[in-house]
Amino acid sequence: MSAWWIILGMSLVTMVPRLLPAWVMDRMVIPGFVDRLLKNIPYAALGALIFPGVLLIDKNPVIGLIGGGVAVVLAYFRMHTMLVIIGAIAAVIVAKMVV
Predict the structure, then answer these.
(1) pLDDT beyond 80 at 1
(2) Rounded to the nearest 5 degrees, what angle is found at the Cα of 60, between the Cα atoms of 64 and 88?
(3) CA atoms within 13 A on the CB side of 67
(4) Confidence check: pLDDT of 82 > 90
């Protein structure tokens, strides 16, 4: 019977930190400039996670920059995500053979 209390306690400890911010933010009125700022955070975080990997893909950072550049150009033209990934990988493979 004590295992059920442990499972119940663990589920509450897991759910409260996830539901509480959503419940509080649902009742707050956020100014427009803060809302625009918060909407850009995922893009900034994604860039901060991806860019170091682009530079460290090989001993020569130019190879990673070529692959990243190809990905940016393909994404700019709104290509499918898989095509962007395949294009960047192909660009890195070609750049490694050339450089």
Answers:
(1) no
(2) 20
(3) 24
(4) yes
Look up the pTM and report it: 0.60
Distance, in Å, from the CA atom of 27 to the CA atom of 17, rounded to the nearest integer, reads 16
Q: Is the per-residue pLDDT at 69 higher than 90?
A: yes
Residue identified by tokens 């663990």 is 10
Mean model confidence pLDDT for the chain = 90
Alpha helices in 27-80 (DSSP H): 32-55, 61-76
All structural domains of the chain with their residue ranges = 1-30, 32-99
Q: Residue 99 contacts by C-beta under 8 Å, 6 or more apart in sequence?
A: 60, 62, 63
- Quick one: tokens of 45? 């975080």
